[in-house]
Automatic annotation (TrEMBL):
UniProt domain Tryptophan synthase beta chain-like PALP: residue ranges: 4-90
Protein name: Threonine synthase
InterPro entries for the chain: TrpB-like_PALP, TrpB-like_PALP_sf
Gene3D superfamilies: 3.40.50.1100
Pfam families: PALP (PF00291)
Length: 130
């Protein structure tokens, strides 16, 4: 129902009256597309995935499409060999609390390269792993 407000940590998409709802539904129908629902836990997993694999710091709403793609893969809507484009425009600084929740917290360090290297190793060590 377009009047329902989603209960989600992705507050940027939890709106009571989204703009262009009718147009979006019409485009979905005309394209033969589908939609999926994802949980907050799946959104947080996608947020972590974007950060750890792509270096993208996304807010929950920006990570939601990635969670949707994973769900669509799991449900066989998208095949493993298909190419998929995901648009993620919400920057993580808009919702730092969710990022902390997704990752289990943050490591606070002094702004010194030795501190970074202590946690993650040196650039030379990382290059040797490639």
């Amino acid at each position: 129902d377009i009047d329902d407000i989603a209960e989600t940590l992705a507050d940027s998409i939890a709106v009571g009256r989204p703009r262009n709802t009718i147009k979006a539904c019409r485009a979905l129908e005309q394209s033969g597309g589908t939609s999926v629902l994802v949980s907050d836990a799946e959104i947080l997993e996608a947020e972590t995935l974007l950060g750890s694999t792509e270096g993208i710091y996304s807010e929950p709403a920006g990570a939601t499409p990635v969670a949707g793609v994973q769900t669509a893969l799991d449900q066989g809507i998208i095949e493993q060999d298909e190419t998929v484009v995901v648009v993620s425009t919400g920057f993580g600084l808009k919702d730092t609390k969710s990022a902390e929740k997704a990752t289990g917290g943050v490591d606070r360090i002094d702004p010194k390269i030795t501190e970074v290297e202590g946690l993650y190793g040196t650039a030379e060590e990382a290059a040797a792993d490639d």
